[in-house]
Design a protein that fits this description.
Blueprint (H helix, E strand, L loop, with lengths): L1 E6 L2 E5 L2 E2 L2 H13 L5 E7 L5 E7 L1 H17 L2 H19 L6 H13 L5 E8 L2 E8 L7 H4 L11 H29 L15
Antiparallel strand pairs: 1-2, 1-6, 2-3, 4-5, 6-7
Helix pairs in contact: 1-2, 3-4
Length: 204
C-alpha cells in the first residue's frame, strides 16, 4: 500500500515523508511501476489533426490522479465537482497544445487554484497487478457526515423530508405528462389534426 498526502490540491508527502513534487513523482514511479500501474495505450488526436497511437507508462501520475480524485470526492460539493469536470478538458487541451502562457489558461488555473483550497488530506491505496484499490481516505475538510448520509433511523437526516422535495421536483414532469396525454387524446379523436392543442391562457 502507498499513502499520498495533499495540501490545497498539491501532493506533499508519500508514506508520511514530505518530498518535493519531483521527488514525489519519482517515488511513486518506482512504487507504481513495480506493481504494473500506469500503462496507457491510446489513440489520440494531435494538434495538427492526425490521429496517433501512443503507449505510455506513467505510474506516478496515475497514482496521483487517482488519489486526488478520491480526496476531491470528500471535499468538493456537487456543483463544484461538476464545473471542474466541464473545465478539465479545456485545461488539458490548452496544456497539450502548448498554450501554457495563454490568457485562457491563466483564467482556468485561477479557478483551479481556488477550487482546490480545501483538497487537503490523505489517501491510502492498495496496489495489485495493475489495479488500484482505495483502502482509506481522510480529510480535515471532508463534507461527508455519516449522521446525515445514513439511510437508517436515528440519524440527523429525516427521510420524510424528501417527500415534499420530490413532489416539487417532479411537478414539471407531471404537468408535461398531463399535457401530453391531452394532446394524444385530441389527435386520436381527430386523426387529421397533427398539431398539439393551443397553449393555455397566460397567467399575466
Amino acid at each position: 500500500a502507498v499513502t499520498i498526502a495533499f495540501e490545497a490540491g498539491i501532493p506533499c508527502a508519500v508514506n508520511g515523508e514530505r518530498l518535493t513534487p519531483i521527488e514525489i513523482v519519482q517515488r511513486l514511479n518506482t512504487i507504481g511501476g513495480r506493481n504494473g500501474i500506469g500503462r496507457i495505450d491510446m489513440v489520440e488526436n494531435r494538434f495538427v489533426g492526425m490521429k496517433s497511437r501512443g503507449v505510455y507508462e506513467a505510474p506516478g501520475m496515475t497514482l496521483l490522479y487517482e488519489a486526488r480524485m478520491l480526496i476531491e470526492q470528500l471535499t468538493l460539493n456537487r456543483d463544484l465537482l461538476h464545473l471542474r469536470d466541464r473545465l478539465a478538458p479545456e485545461v488539458a487541451e490548452a496544456v497539450y497544445y502548448g498554450f501554457w502562457y495563454s490568457p485562457k489558461l491563466d483564467a482556468l488555473m485561477a479557478f483551479i487554484r481556488q477550487a482546490q483550497q480545501c483538497v487537503t488530506g490523505e489517501v491510502q491505496l492498495g496496489l495489485y497487478k495493475g489495479n488500484i484499490l482505495v483502502q482509506r481516505r481522510s480529510s480535515p475538510c471532508s463534507l461527508y457526515d455519516e449522521g446525515i448520509a445514513t439511510m437508517e433511523g436515528g440519524g440527523s437526516y429525516n427521510q420524510t423530508d424528501a417527500e415534499g422535495f420530490l413532489r416539487i421536483q417532479g411537478l414539471p414532469l407531471r404537468v408535461q405528462a398531463s399535457r401530453q396525454k391531452t394532446w394524444e387524446s385530441t389527435v386520436a379523436g381527430n386523426p387529421k389534426s397533427g398539431s398539439p392543442p393551443s397553449a393555455p391562457p397566460s397567467a399575466d
